[in-house]
Predict the 3D structure of the following.
Amino acid sequence: MAALSDQTILVTGASGGVGEAVARVLAERGATVCLSGRNEGRLKKIAAQLPEQRALSYPADLTVEQELERLVRGILTDHPRLDAIIHCAGIITLDAFATAAAGDFERQFQTNVLAPFRLTQLLLPALISAQGQLVFINSSAGLRARGGVSQYAATKHALKAVADSLREECNAAGVRVCSLYLGATATPMQAAVRAHQQRDYQPDRIIQPDDVAEIIAAILALPRTAEVTDVTMRPAAKA
């Protein structure tokens, strides 16, 4: 029997990068995967490539409250049980502190912090009912802020706080919460970061999205006698 059979799992940011890899691996392990993202065409294409009846797409811009609420209604209507949420959606804008635009900060906060907060808040009763699990994809910037990423790092520090506080509040109800702090990962976002920084981009020398997906699948399949609260991943090669 597949490790995650009969589980229903929501993956945000599933239209590419880490989110797409996570959705693929979880479906292969037997889960029914709810794919969320802004690109409806891309979501449908990915869903069609997954094992039959293992994926449904729920396109939404999670920074728009009405679309977020529509997503929640759709998932709760279609699925009697929700076992996990994997928060993969995120954006980054790089600039020096002195010149960074307040509007960029607001957009990053809405996507990286407020959207996962609200989505979890609305789906928390279902997760408590299922004694479910949450995985927040964070960043090494959520542990240590370097120059040039003050806004992005601030949102990732805030996301860590959201996860830590939530864990304290809902562990007693049987809900497990994990933060996964990623170093450089071979995604379009990382390619854009390296281009902005005028640094060489060698995707085969950094973390692969499938590496992240394998870790998440293992966290979800862990026996209920233990909880993984924080995981840090970094590239093995120091590029």
In short: The longest strand covers residues 133-139. The mean pLDDT is 94. The radius of gyration is 17 Å. The beta strands are 8-11, 32-37, 55-59, 84-87, 133-139, 176-182, 230-233.
